[in-house]
Specification:
alpha+beta; 12 helices; five-stranded parallel beta sheet; 4 domains; about 30% strand; Dna Ligase, domain 1; binds adenosine monophosphate; Rossmann fold; about 30% helix; six-stranded antiparallel beta sheet; binds glycine; D-amino Acid Aminotransferase, Chain A, domain 1
Length: about 425
């Protein structure tokens, strides 16, 4: 069969690579992909949902798999389904679980899924009054999509006031911050938990740890994710049962009952485990990035089989198999560089997740020939004169494999040292603490 993967980053590379190794799959196309993915998978330049549809029809693809949230919240599944092209993901009305944090939190409260105490505001003054009245630290979250950067974890009232101003008055993420959720800050163990679901039954995936903060020891701003590893030390049947019973299943069923729409595809819940209770911090309607890069290499069941089971509503009939191997992903990001114009320095770019420069040549990739190391390409493009150059905030995912977490981590760090571009920066503590 022929598969189209819609994505442009490291997650899309991992999904496309998984299909490439799938015995049922003859050809994989990634759209738009990037220059790094194009080393091993055909990439086609499509960006809007109508362009993906045109490409899928032209190429007569048998199935489409969507990586990021925005095509989903823009209704790609409805569009393809109307044309009878099989596609994996929730329809537009179900993608609201990611598209509106306020909606999801209110749904959770309604159906009894554990969430931190919260309120929703569309008036910054009322939001500030609330923060002043509650006696605990809060997290201020933009309601809409903000590329994983719209939640501001605050230590005190002053920080929370700043966060409200940043999101609601300065509109740092545009309309996404018109409404905010303000919730109690929780302290516990954070995990990313994914399930495949056909709207009725679900199959849980291995547990991954994501590193959201920009700097070591979880300091600095939130990012899309600076690294990940899997399995997590808490992974196992007990945790999977707990989360499926308390969070994933109620959310899927509750959504269907309220909206009369099945939720199909991948459900990603960001959870904080506090005293054995899994609190839902966020729900996403897709694979995580960089979690997919450490979960998918562990998948032994063909992703094409799972995809058709999701679409045909027969997921419950088969078991999904996973390998016990450890994978650790360290993200090479665009750090601090000089901002040049006309050969003159114009100050500095602070680096991802704030503003960063682009177009710096990437060297050393050819020196990585370790069978336990894979590179998933994210913000990379091709320059006619310079070869591979940086083209995003997260540039490369260097993924190590091992029989233990420390072995996987060593592979990733040993190999990331071989890569260079101006301003390269990565966290040095991915996978270090919890074995
Ligand atoms: P979200 O956009 O909701 O996933 O939040 C991004 C990150 O902020 C999460 O991955 C957590 O690290 C952190 N966070 C979100 N909500 C809370 C909370 N209630 N308490 C503590 N940390 C949180
Ligand atoms: N790793 C966080 C996300 O994909 O949203």
């Amino acid at each position: 069969m022929k598969v189209l993967v819609v994505d442009s980053g490291g997650r899309g590379h991992a999904i496309a690579w998984q299909f490439k190794n799938d015995p049922n799959v003859r050809e994989v196309i990634c759209a738009p992909g990037n220059a790094g993915i194009a080393r091993e998978i055909r990439c086609e330049n499509a960006r809007a949902n109508e362009e993906f549809l045109e490409l899928a029809k032209r190429e007569k693809v048998d199935i489409v798999f969507v990586g990021p949230e925005s095509p989903l919240t823009n209704g790609i599944v409805d569009l393809f389904t109307a044309e009878k092209i099989p596609i994996v993901g929730p329809q537009k009305s179900a993608a609201i679980l990611e598209g509106s944090k306020a909606y999801t939190k209110l749904l959770c409260r309604d159906i009894g899924v554990p969430v931190a105490e919260f309120e929703v505001f569309d008036d910054p003054e009322k939001a500030k009054d609330y923060v002043g009245a509650v006696k605990y630290p809060v997290v201020v979250k933009a309601d809409g999509l903000a590329q994983g950067k719209g939640s501001i974890v605050c230590s005190d009232t002053e920080e929370a006031f700043h966060a409200i101003h940043h999101l609601m008055v300065e509109m740092a993420f545009g309309d996404a911050g018109r409404k905010v959720v303000i919730e109690k800050r929780l302290y516990g163990t954070e995990i990313s938990f994914f399930v495949f679901t056909d709207g009725e039954s679900l199959a849980s995936m291995p547990v991954a740890q994501d590193y959201k903060r920009a700097y070591d020891n979880d300091e600095g701003a939130n990012t899309g994710g600076m690294g990940s590893y899997s399995p997590h030390r808490l992974e196992g049947e007990e945790l999977a049962k707990l989360v499926c019973e308390k969070v994933s299943m109620p959310l899927i069923q509750g959504f269907k009952e309220k909206q009369e729409v099945p939720y199909r595809g991948i459900l990603y819940t960001g959870l904080m485990l506090v005293d054995g209770i899994p609190y839902l911090l966020e729900a996403n309607v897709r694979f995580g990035d960089p979690e997919a890069q450490v979960i998918l290499p562990r998948l032994k069941t063909p992703l094409s089989d799972i995809s058709f089971q999701i679409i045909n509503g027969v997921l419950g009939e088969k078991r999904v198999e996973w390998s016990p191997d450890y994978y650790c992903d360290v993200v090479a990001a665009a750090g601090r560089t000089r901002q040049m114009k006309g050969g003159k320095s114009k100050g500095w770019y602070p680096g991802y997740p704030a503003r960063y420069g682009k177009g710096y040549p990437i060297s050393g990739l050819e020196t990585i020939d370790d069978p336990d190391c894979r590179i998933f390409f994210a913000g990379v493009s091709n320059s006619a004169t310079k070869g591979f150059v940086t083209d995003g905030g997260r540039v490369l995912h260097i993924v190590g494999r091992g029989n233990t977490l420390s072995a996987a981590r060593d592979v990733a760090y040993r190999n990331i040292e071989k890569v260079h571009f101006e301003g390269i920066r990565y966290r040095t503590d991915i996978g270090r603490e919890k074995e």
